[in-house]
Amino acid sequence: MINNPLDFSGKRVLITGASSGIGRACSILLSELGAKLVLNGRNLDSLKSTMSLLEGNGHVLAPFDMADTNGLCDWVKTLTKEYGYLDSFVHCAGIQITKPIRMFEKGFFDDTMHVNLASAMAISQGFRIKRDRSKQGSIVFVASIAGLIGQTGNTVYGASKAGLMSLTRGLSMELLRDNIRVNCVAPALVETDMAVRTKQSMTDAQYQHILNQHPMGVGEPKDVANAVAFLLSDAAKWINSVPLPVEGGYLAN
Ligand SMILES: NC(=O)c1ccc[n+]([C@@H]2O[C@H](COP(=O)([O-])OP(=O)(O)OC[C@H]3O[C@@H](n4cnc5c(N)ncnc54)[C@H](OP(=O)(O)O)[C@@H]3O)[C@@H](O)[C@H]2O)c1
After folding, report:
1. Catalytic status, residue 157
2. 164, 161, 153: which is closest to 209 by C-alpha?
3. Tell me, what DSSP letter sits at residue 190?
4. Could you tell me where the DSSP H helices lie in the chain?
5. What is the best residue among 14, 29, 61, 96 to mutate for testing ligand 1's pocket, by most ligand atoms within 8 Å of CB?
């Protein structure tokens, strides 16, 4: 019998942002690989739509607002009480609002940092406390190439994603003694609702400029899900602290 390191049978995985785009693609793939999922987002109807696309059974819905960073640690502890220990989690939830510096205001900055960054720390805090330390745990954050490059009007979003990469490095060391690996993926433009909103926030010429920077075209959500599943799985059991670009050659261009 072949031991498949990408087999998630018997593993319970929390996925934030599961109601749409990359989070939905991760949910579908991980269910196909045998995982039992805890699906998070805010929109219950969209979460149910994701649920209807999954393989297997035993998946549950867990709506919660990632902006409530004070409540997140307890929320994760409640999840483990209700559904058993989590083996790993993928943090896909995120917001992107294009705003040049002349439109800067603190509320927008705080919202972005809470939903994209502080939430990752708070979920990790809850995950670390309530788990079976005899098994290796795994965390994957969904960052962005925006955290590696400069983009006009995308500075605050980029800072939140650069923060996620830094958090990946810090937590990968801090959680070693808890037997947890921490990695992240950094996608370029992927065809999701977020990309549609980004397109709507700029002129056709500006969007075309972004498309031209993708030598292999824009990505599909599944392209990111494949990388997430690998980093989350036992196939990556000796990979820690990695920010994996998933960007169709964007950075080489
Ligand atoms: N698409 C791209 O080009 C691209 C590129 C690089 C990185 N990313 C990153 O990939 C991740 C997924 O984005 P996507 O492209 O799949 O976008 P999307 O289709 O807009 O999905 C965003 C997800 O985040 C959830 N979310 C947003 N705010 C939330 C909140 N306050 N509480 C709970 N959930 C919240 C949404 O759930 P509800 O609507 O149900 O609340 C939704 O499931 C994000 O972190 C994004 O920054 C995307």
Report:
1. yes
2. 153
3. B
4. 21-32, 44-52, 69-83, 106-113, 119-129, 155-174, 193-200, 204-212, 221-232
5. 96
Query: Do the domain assignments include residue 215?
Result: no
The angle formed by the CA atoms of residues 242, 91 and 93, to the nearest 5 degrees, is: 130
Structural domain for 109, as ranges:
12-188+222-241
**Catalytically annotated residue among 85, 157, 207, 250:** 157
Size of the chain, expressed as the number of residues it contains: 253
Is residue 193 included in any domain, yes or no? no
Contact 99/108 with Cβ under 8 angstroms? yes
54: left (phi over 0), alpha (psi -120 to 50) or beta: beta
Which residue(s) pair with 246 in the sheet?
Answer: 187
Distance from the alpha carbon of residue 189 to the mean position of ligand 1, in angstroms: 13
Q: Indicate whether 248 belongs to any domain.
A: no
Contacts of 93 (CB under 8 A, 6+ apart): 16, 17, 23, 40, 41, 66, 115, 119
Residue 80 is predicted with a pLDDT of 95
pLDDT of residue 1 exceeding 80, the answer is: no
Q: Which two tokens stand for residue 9?
A: 């049978």
Please tell me if the CB atom of residue 68 comes closer than 6 angstroms to any atom of ligand 1: no
pLDDT at 216 over 80: yes
Testing ligand 1's pocket by substitution, the residue of 192, 196, 220 carrying the most ligand atoms inside 8 A of its CB is 192
Say what the pLDDT of residue 131 is.
87
How many domains does the chain contain in total?
1
- Cα–Cα dist 210/183, whole Å: 26
Question: What is the per-residue pLDDT across 169-211, written as a single tens digit (0 to 9) for each?
Answer: 999 999 999 999 999 999 999 999 999 999 998 899 999 999 9
